[in-house]
Recover the amino acids of this structure.
């Protein structure tokens, strides 16, 4: 074999291994989820990077001004699955986010409505944005799934999520509580 051929083979092998390592790392990172599951409920929290959120909202025609506002905080896509045979009541006001510095306030719908109004964002984009958020209150029927985004101020600190879900049609049933620890923003 010539020096050129050896160099070509060595370069090809090196690039192939590098691509494999990078794609494995990216795949592992993209599957990073925080989860609570038992026989009654499953709650999954998946952090999203600013690049993911920018691409998502850019694809829906959002302005650069809106996208710049949306890449500052931390986005988490939440999935909830009611595994009971009864109604499960979700109320975002029962969700508590805490870290070593205390409670972290969710950047909720009213926060964003005020921000968009001050920025004079078109109502169509405000509406599109709202449907991407986790509903504030919702009843889940047996085996029903629901999801959406929760947005928190950016922090490098890990945090804990605690939430409570009432059960039964009149909300008088067993209270189901969850706790997910060491959740972190994705940057």
């Amino acid at each position: 074999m010539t020096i050129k051929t050896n160099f070509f083979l060595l370069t090809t092998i090196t690039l192939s291994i590098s691509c494999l390592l990078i794609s494995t790392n990216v795949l592992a990172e993209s599957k990073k989820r925080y989860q609570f599951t038992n026989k009654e409920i499953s709650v999954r929290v998946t952090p999203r990077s600013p690049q993911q959120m920018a691409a998502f909202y850019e694809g829906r025609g959002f302005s650069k001004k809106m996208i710049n506002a949306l890449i500052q905080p931390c986005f988490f896509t939440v999935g909830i699955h009611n595994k009971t045979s009864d109604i499960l009541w979700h109320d975002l006001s029962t969700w508590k986010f805490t870290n070593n510095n205390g409670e972290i306030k969710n950047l909720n719908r009213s926060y964003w409505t005020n921000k968009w109004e001050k920025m004079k964002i078109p109502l169509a984009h405000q509406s599109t944005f709202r449907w991407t958020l986790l509903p504030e209150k919702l009843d889940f029927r047996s085996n029903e799934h629901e999801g959406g985004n929760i947005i928190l101020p950016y922090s490098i600190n890990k945090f804990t999520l605690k939430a409570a879900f009432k059960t039964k049609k009149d909300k008088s049933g067993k209270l189901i509580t969850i706790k997910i620890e060491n959740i972190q923003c994705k940057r």
The chain has one domain: 34-183. The longest strand covers residues 74-82.
